[in-house]
Specification:
CATH architecture: Roll
Number of strands: 8
Radius of gyration: 21 Å
Shape: globular
Structural class: alpha/beta
Largest sheet: 4 strands, mixed
Strand content: 15-25%
Oligomer: single chain
CATH superfamily: CBS-domain
Helix content: 25-40%
CATH topology: CBS-domain
């Protein structure tokens, strides 16, 4: 006697062409002010999958992945998904690859992510506890002071070790503040945010 007699099989159909797949999403408000909670402009990695790359992948592959996923920063991880650093569009499109390639006497196409990424030991991070109590204005001021487009947010995991919980992007914050940003220059980004909000 079959134990499955009470479970008729489910009906199946064929997968249609051109089908996508569900991905975690985080709904962020379209419009924020400097007084709104900072979490309203944070990409929460418990709700959105981090876009990652391996240190041995080429710089061109990193750039392709950014374009494909519509992001300007990738987490660089090892085979065990431990964060080794990050790489940004500014790293890739700036002078860094040209300088490193000429120093090493290699072609730009031969550069790996590890050659131009910001390594983990040089990454300053924010604590989730502080972010929960902060406003958007605090995050903008922090990014401006650091002269960076991105900031990582960490919180302790169950064993008390740091884990990357989220990230801030100056471009996304500007979009939510209603500031149009044409340039990739960091100083320009913050000057535009301040001048637009000062009106």
């Amino acid at each position: 006697m079959s134990v499955l007699r009470d479970y008729p099989p489910l009906k199946t159909t064929l997968l249609q062409p051109g089908v996508g797949f569900a991905q975690p999403t985080q709904v962020v408000p379209d419009k924020v002010t400097l007084e709104d909670a900072a979490v309203n402009v944070m990409t929460d990695l418990t709700r959105v999958t981090a876009v990652i790359i391996l240190p041995g992948d080429t710089v061109d592959e990193a750039h392709r992945r950014m374009i494909q996923r519509g992001v300007r920063m990738l987490l660089v991880v090892d085979q065990d998904r431990q964060v080794l650093g990050l790489i940004t569009a500014t790293d890739i499109l700036g002078e860094k690859p040209v300088q490193v390639a000429s120093e090493r006497g290699v072609r730009r196409q031969e550069l790996a992510v590890r050659d131009i990424m910001t390594p983990q030991e040089r990454l300053e991070v924010l604590n989730m506890e502080d972010v929960r109590a902060a406003k958007v204005g605090h995050v903008v001021a922090t990014l401006k002071k650091a002269g960076r487009q991105h900031a990582l947010v960490v919180e302790p995991d169950g064993k008390g070790r740091q884990t990357v919980r989220g990230l801030f992007s100056a471009t996304q914050i500007a979009r939510q503040l209603g500031v149009s940003i044409q340039t990739s220059e960091i100083a320009g980004t913050f000057a535009e945010i301040e001048s637009t909000l000062g009106r």
